[in-house]
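ok so i was messing around last nite and threw this chain in just to see what happens. nothing serious, just curious
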Amino acid sequence: MVEGPSIEEFDEELGEWITIYTASPTFAHTTPIASSNYPKFYAPESKFDSTGASS
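result:
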């Protein structure tokens, strides 16, 4: 078991399990940015697709 809060995730590119430390400062900094970018990245594209195709 790893000390501190962490997530084990299977990296398909590496083909191995990697451990992400949720307590790491870089991870804490990256997560909010990634989370806020996700909806903005995908939502407009999906809306464009459906509205553009139907109208």
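not much to say yet. The chain has a mean pLDDT of 62.
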